[in-house]
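Dear Dr. L.,

I hope this message finds you well. Following up on our conversation about the binding site, I have prepared a predicted three-dimensional model of the protein together with zinc ion. For your records, I am including the exact sequence and ligand specification that went into the calculation, followed by the structure tokens. Please feel free to forward this to your student if that is useful.
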Amino acid sequence: MPELPEVETTRRGLEPHLAGQTILRLTVHDHRLRWPVAAGLPQTLAGQRVESVERRAKYLLLRLTHGTVLWHLGMSGSLRIVPSGLPTEPHDHIDLALTSGHTVRFNDPRRFGCVIYVTGDPQAHPLLAKLAPEPFAAAFDAGYLWRVSRRRKVSVKQLIMNGQVVTGVGNIYASEVLFHSGIRPRRQSRSLKRAEVTRLVTAIRKVLKQAIRVGGTTLRDYVNPEGNPGYFRQKLYVYERAGEPCRNCDTLIRSLTQGQRSTYYCPTCQS
Ligand SMILES: [Zn+2]
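The resulting structure of the complex is given below.
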């Protein structure tokens, strides 16, 4: 599933191809996404200029002359830049053709993605209005996470994966974050000490930043029709490494199940 770093990588890959371009036409090959693509969308978008490409949580925001397109990649979606006219392949559902001769192509086998057009302030849209702070925003600091952690009767892993606490920490990154924080995943969030909360904030930013940076290095492939965004190329310390030696201390990495998701940790480095 595309997580925040992959969406940010996608944003960075798209922006230079989209900003300043005018939309020639939107072609919907299959409108059956998470919510059906509005029938009038092609007409609405044609002729509008893309001012910028932004991101909020896992939504891409295409700022246009008169409104904003909210684009979510769902469970399996990806956006690529291809030469206009390139034949579509299975699961290519939407083409956004630009005056540059390039097309933004949306592929989504499981069709949980969505494309929604909004006028007015997109941040006020119900899908975005209640989202927690971005991990890189000033509002997400140790004081904030400390206050939130006192109020919740959940494990620390559930705390940081809760999209109403902070956006962008998916299952893979949660294990990595906890490793870098030295905190065991099953600890109750209320048991965290202030210094541990501070380490958590630092680790969340560090792990996500690193993932974005590594994703960024694969952008060269981005315009290549054969290229796929390089998800999860970063060096993982614990995720899916059960039974392998810890990269810090050689203790064997353990795994457990929390909320039906796999969690990985080092019993020596994390307490
Ligand atoms: Zn270790």
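In brief: Strands lie at 23-28, 50-56, 59-64, 68-72, 78-83, 92-98, 102-107, 114-118, 254-258, 261-265.

With kind regards,
A. P.
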